[in-house]
Design a protein that fits this description.
The chain is of the alpha/beta class. It has six helices and 13 strands.
Length: 303
């Protein structure tokens, strides 16, 4: 199923220029073009706008920051002209007025039409209820054409927000993801060259959350449907711990719930003997914590 091209909503000329932040990243004002439900736990939102002509994602697990308006606002409030100081200025804004900021990965980037697709997991919204819905899940569940957002993303393909970087000499790749990392895993599979072999494990809350994933590579994909009474990632960790791996030099990419990511990384490096430099890992979320909690922890650790 594809989105109808006739549904594209043009962004006003005032929103056509992206604002430089620093280095290889910019602010990109955009609007919702279309939405489509992918399953009980996920909705795809297509963003478009003239500013996105300069969006230059590197594919794979390209990440960016998404700014959403507060419920009472027409458009998100973002410090466009702050340059490198944008994060400090955003933090000192009134919490009820500053834009809601969340991190996402690009599912699809259409350079010809200046469009970016993002798949949102509906934490706590609808059938995917696992607790109270967060502001991004609530927004995505109700998103409609014309809704305004701002992306803080790459203006150059070669940027530090692409984590999947298999080294030269890699014979096969291991991909482990839960539903939050499914969009990135799908984009990685589409990017993989045909000569590589991929072993992929993806854990989702419901059977209807599974998707058809395509890849030029020889990809063996295992879908795991989570037991709702067990902690997310438990089944994923168990299956990989018991799996037989292919011969050759591996490269591993693990993303999803933080505890699962740590457990799997420890297993791959310790029990399996994979060079830690060849294991890319990212905790997209943590059970019982908000993204604000995780950002504050990272800042305190850095200090």
């Amino acid at each position: 199923m594809t989105f109808p091209s006739s549904s594209r909503t043009p962004v006003p000329e005032a929103e056509s220029a992206s604002a430089l932040v620093h280095g290889k990243f910019r602010f990109f004002p955009a609007r919702v073009i279309e939405t489509r439900r992918l399953g009980p736990s996920m909705v795809r939102v297509r963003f478009g706008g003239e500013a996105l002509r300069d969006f230059a994602g590197g594919g794979r697990d390209q990440s960016f920051s998404l700014f959403l308006p507060q419920p009472h606002q027409y458009a998100p409030t973002v410090p466009f002209d702050a340059g490198d100081d944008w994060f400090r200025q955003w933090r000192v804004m009134d919490e009820g007025e500053r834009a809601i900021m969340r991190s996402y990965t690009v599912r699809r980037h259409d350079r010809d039409h200046n469009e970016v697709d993002v798949d949102f997991v509906l934490h706590g919204a609808g059938r995917a209820s696992g607790g109270p819905a967060g502001p991004a899940s609530r927004w995505a569940a109700e998103a409609a054409p014309g809704d305004r957002v701002v992306l803080l993303g790459p203006a150059a393909e070669d940027n530090k927000s692409v984590g999947f970087q298999p080294p030269e000499g890699t014979d096969w790749v291991l991909i482990a993801a839960d539903e939050t990392a499914l969009p990135a895993a799908a984009a990685i599979l589409e990017w993989l060259p045909g000569h590589l072999r991929a072993r992929v494990w993806i854990e989702v809350p419901y059977l209807k959350d599974t998707q058809e994933l395509l890849s030029p590579a020889e990809a063996d994909i295992t879908w795991l449907v989570r037991d709702p009474l067990r902690q997310p990632g438990t089944l994923l960790s168990k299956e990989i711990a018991e799996a037989t791996f292919p011969d050759g030099a591996p490269y591993a990419w693990i993303a999803g719930e933080s505890a699962m990511v740590k457990t799997l990384r420890r297993h791959l490096v310790g029990a399996r003997g994979i060079d830690r430099r060849h294991v890319t890992f990212s905790g997209y979320w943590r059970l019982g914590a908000t993204e604000e909690d995780l950002r504050i922890e990272k800042m305190e650790a850095a200090q």
